[in-house]
Amino acid sequence: MINAQRFSVSSGIKHLIVLAFVVLWTLPTAGLLVSSVRDADQLIVSGWWTALVATERNAAHRTGTADSQVEVDNQFRIDGEFFREDSGRTVVSWGTGGRNLDEFQAGDTWVQDDGSRLTVNEDGSYVWLSEQPFEHARGIRLFYIAAIPPRFTMANYERVLAAEGIGRAFVNSVTVTLPATFIPILIAAFAAYALSWMNFWGRSFFLAAIVGLLVVPLQMALIPVLSTYNWLGQTWVGSLGWEPRSYLGVWLAHTGFGLPLAVYLLRNYMAGLPREIMESARMDGATHFKIFITIVLPLSVPALASFAIFQFLWVWNDLLVAIVFLGQGEGRTVLTAQLRELLGSRGDNWEILTSGAFVTMIVPLLVFISMQRYFVRGMLAGSVKGG
Predict the structure, then answer these.
(1) Burial class of residue 204 in the structure, from the number of CB atoms within 10 Å of its CB (0-12 exposed, 13-18 middle, 19+ buried)
(2) Under 8 Å CB-to-CB from 170, ≥6 apart: which residues?
(3) Could you report the per-residue pLDDT of 261-308, keeping only the tens digit for each?
(4) Which sequence spans correspond to the domains of the chain?
(5) Fewer CB atoms inside 10 A, N or C side of the chain?
(6) Which contacts qualify for 7-16: CB closer than 8 Å, 24 or more apart?
């Protein structure tokens, strides 16, 4: 009985720890989702966790001039509105200077030295009354605190989807991602089979070199690879009439950077396949190519799918490699680069970054959901089996 209670308590603690990690892992994504549907003005002044409560923002407004006055019941009157549209905002307090925003409350009247009376209402409308005609050529500047109610909108998504070049950038991303995912899988599958089931000189050396390449950061290898790529483009590739900065270049770059992980993952998986099947196929006279096509590839679908998800996500979300090897311009900008341009040179339109992030997540999310049943199986098998 005591052991059962201890097991129950221990199991409950483990579940709570796992739940805490899940919450911490998904919290940034949830915050990004909430921010993507919030009003741009609210994003500037408050975080996503305040999305369900009203927020306050300081602002200023200049009243109308003497040209806008009207005479009503022997009084001269100037009317105006703090808010240009009916957004549900209300005035909390207001004042005549930026440091005394709480000088007056909404509905209070400010009696000036000349006897005129200025009243600011809660809805942002104001009335300025005077017994004598107004003569000022410039309005008075009023400062106020406005309460902004929670407001959710799809305007950020509309700006992203309706922006010029987004459709073309989406097609460019698909054009880059699909071959850059398929090519390394094809090459790595052949290499992994050779490292697993074929005996040749230097096999251990090649495997050690591949493992070593896994720890080389992309940023360190980028400059040497780019220099070699430019040299090839000016000599061999250029003589064939190919454009150095093209889809072919970015496909090769992603293939080179993705091959170490692909070969390592697939090799560990293929090395763990039953040896009896391979020996039976050889006794029946099957060649290595026949064994690879008819036996190894069908059995390696989980590992292939696992790497395909990793490679697809990495290439789809890539910005650095695409800019360096593909460049920018007409018909070349990928989706991530196009969203960066929408932000502006100084990040003035940063509120659309949240909605843009979810727009780019749609395709990877569909890929992951469609292939998730292979993902865990392939990763576990590739990490614990080896030969």
Answers:
(1) exposed
(2) 335
(3) 899 888 888 888 888 888 888 888 888 888 888 888 888 888 888 888
(4) 55-149, 163-384
(5) N
(6) none
Evaluate whether 270 touches 284 at the Cβ level (below 8 Å): no
**pLDDT tens per residue across span 87-134:** 678 899 999 888 888 889 999 999 988 888 999 999 889 999 998 888
Collapsed DSSP state (helix, strand, coil) of residue 223: helix
Quote the tokens at residue 259: 């091959």
Measuring CA to CA, which residue among 294, 236, 234, 297 is closest to residue 269? 297
Q: What is the DSSP string of 331-365?
A: TT--HHHHHHHHT-TT-TTTTHHHHHHHHHHHHHH
DSSP H/E element including 76: strand 75-81
Number of H helices, E strands in the chain: 15, 9
Three-class secondary structure of residue 187 per DSSP: helix
Pairing of strands 125-130, 75-81: antiparallel
Please list the residues that pair with 57 across neighbouring strands.
146
Cβ-Cβ contacts under 8 Å for 172 (sequence gap 6 or more):
331, 332, 333, 334, 335
* Domain 163-384 listed as CATH 1.10.3720.10: yes
Residue 117 CA, distance from chain mean position: 52
